[in-house]
C-alpha cells in the first residue's frame, strides 16, 4: 500500500512515495514562494501529481510547519508561510482530483512518528522527539499513540516557559524553551561570545568564512577541540537536558530523540544533555531514566512519517 508523504518547508517542498516498511521509492522536490499561499499549494499539488502518475497511491499525508486542526484538515497558523486558517486539505484535494484520503499533520509530529515506527524509537511505546533547528519543535508518542491533544496543537514543547521574563519568543511570550535550546539560541550565544572574546572565537569566525558565526562552524570548531565551541554546545545540551527532564516529570518517556542539524555535534551535544537530564530529573537515581539518542531518519523523516500517518 503506497502513500505519498509531503514535507512542506518555507521555500521548498519534498515529496516521496513510501511503502509500508517506510522506504521511499521515488522522490521529487519543488521550490515555492513563501510569500504566496497559492504558490505553496500548487507546489504540493504538482509534486503529488507527478508521483501519483508513477505509482498507485492509496493515501496522501501533508506535513506542515505550524498548528494543525484536530480534524487534520486546516493549518491554523504557520509562522513561516502566509497560512492563517488555511484549508490545505480542501485546496489540495480540489486541485489534485484524486479519490484518496488526504490528511494534514504537523511536521514535527510527522518526523516523530517516522522515528517511532521506523527509526530509533522502534523498540519503545513512549517517546519524546525534539526537532532542534531554527526553533524547537516536538512530538510525543504515549502508549504507541501520537499525542495531538484536544485541538490538534499538543507537543509544542518549544513554548514551555523556562525562564520568567527571559528572551522574547516569536510566539509573543518571554522565556520559552526554544529561546535557549535551538540552533538560533546556539548561534546567538556564539555571536555574543565573539563580541566579548574575539580571540577565543577566532576559529569559529574563520570557519564561517569571516562572516557572522553560524551553526555548522560552531560544530566544526568543537570537533577540532576548540574550547569555546565545546562550551557553547555543552550549554545548549544543558538546556535540552533540563527541559527534557521537565517533560519527563509529566510523561515519563522511555526515549528522548534529538533531531535537527545540531545532531551533527554527536557526543559533544549528547553527553552534556544526558548529564543535565540526570541532574534535573525528579527522584534521579531512584527511577529508570529515559535514553537520549540522536534521530536516525534524517531529512526523510517528514516524508516517511506523513505518508505512514495518512495510512492509519
Give the topology:
Elements: E1 2-8, E2 12-18, E3 24-31, H1 37-52, E4 57-64, E5 67-68, E6 75-78, E7 83-86, H2 88-96, E8 102-106, H3 107-118, E9 127-132, E10 136-142, E11 145-146, H4 183-196, H5 202-207, H6 215-223, H7 227-251, E12 255-259, H8 267-280, E13 291-294, H9 301-311
Parallel strand pairs: 1-4, 4-8, 9-12, 12-13
Antiparallel strand pairs: 1-2, 2-3, 5-6, 6-7, 9-10, 10-11
Helix pairs in contact: 1-2, 3-9, 4-7, 6-7, 7-8
Give short descriptive properties of this protein.
312 residues; alpha/beta; five-stranded mixed beta sheet
Brief overview, please?
The protein has 312 residues and is an alpha/beta fold.
Explain this structure.
The chain has helices spanning 37-52, 88-96, 107-118, 183-196, 202-207, 215-223, 227-251, 267-280, 301-311, and strands at residues 2-8, 12-18, 24-31, 57-64, 67-68, 75-78, 83-86, 102-106, 127-132, 136-142, 145-146, 255-259, 291-294. It is α/β, with parallel strands linked by helices. A 5-stranded mixed β-sheet has the order 3-2-1-4-8. A hairpin with a 3-residue loop joins β9 and β10. α4 (183-196) packs antiparallel against α7. The protein starts with a strand and ends with a helix.
Low-confidence stretches: none
In total, the number of strands is: 13
Cα-to-Cα separation, first versus last residue? 11 Å
Enumerate the strands of the largest sheet in spatial order, edge to edge or round the barrel. 3-2-1-4-8
Tell me the fraction of residues in β-strands, as a range: 15-25%
The shape, in one word, is globular
N-to-C series of helices and strands: EEEHEEEEHEHEEEHHHHEHEH
Classification by helices and strands: alpha/beta
Oligomer: single chain
Amino acid at each position: 500500500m503506497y502513500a505519498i508523504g509531503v514535507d512542506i518547508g518555507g521555500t521548498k517542498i519534498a515529496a516521496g512515495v513510501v511503502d509500508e516498511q517506510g522506504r521511499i521509492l521515488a522522490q521529487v522536490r519543488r521550490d515555492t514562494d513563501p510569500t504566496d499561499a497559492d504558490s505553496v499549494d500548487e507546489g504540493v499539488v504538482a509534486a503529488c501529481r507527478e508521483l501519483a502518475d508513477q505509482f498507485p497511491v492509496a493515501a496522501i499525508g501533508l506535513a506542515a510547519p505550524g498548528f494543525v486542526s484536530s480534524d487534520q484538515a486546516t493549518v491554523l497558523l504557520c509562522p513561516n508561510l502566509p497560512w492563517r486558517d488555511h484549508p490545505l486539505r480542501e485546496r489540495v484535494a480540489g486541485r489534485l482530483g484524486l479519490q484518496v484520503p488526504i490528511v494534514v499533520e504537523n511536521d514535527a509530529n510527522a518526523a516523530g512518528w517516522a522515528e517511532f515506527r521506523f527509526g530509533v524509537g522502534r523498540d519503545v511505546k513512549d517517546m519524546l522527539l525534539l526537532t532542534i533547528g531554527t526553533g524547537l519543535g516536538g512530538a510525543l508518542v504515549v502508549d504507541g499513540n501520537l499525542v495531538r491533544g484536544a485541538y490538534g496543537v499538543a507537543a509544542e514543547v518549544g513554548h514551555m516557559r523556562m525562564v520568567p521574563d527571559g528572551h522574547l519568543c516569536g510566539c509573543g511570550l518571554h522565556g520559552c524553551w526554544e529561546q535557549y535550546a535551538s540552533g538560533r539560541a546556539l548561534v546567538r550565544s556564539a555571536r555574543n561570545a565573539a563580541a566579548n572574546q574575539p580571540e577565543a572565537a577566532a576559529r569559529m569566525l574563520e570557519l564561517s568564512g569571516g562572516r557572522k558565526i553560524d551553526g555548522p562552524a560552531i560544530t566544526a570548531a568543537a570537533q577540532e577541540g576548540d574550547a569555546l565551541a565545546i562550551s557553547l554546545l555543552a550549554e545548549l545540551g544543558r538546556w535540552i537536558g533540563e527541559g527534557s527532564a521537565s517533560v519527563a516529570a509529566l510523561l515519563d518517556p522511555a526515549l528522548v530523540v534529538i533531531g535537527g542539524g545540531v545532531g551533527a555535534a554527536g557526543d559533544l551535544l549528547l553527553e552534556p544533555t544526558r548529564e543535565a537530564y540526570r541532574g534535573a530529573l525528579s527522584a534521579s537515581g531512584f527511577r529508570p531514566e529515559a535514553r537520549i539518542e540522536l534521530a536516525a531518519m534524517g531529512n526523510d523523516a517528514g516524508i516517511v512519517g506523513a505518508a505512514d500517518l495518512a495510512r492509519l
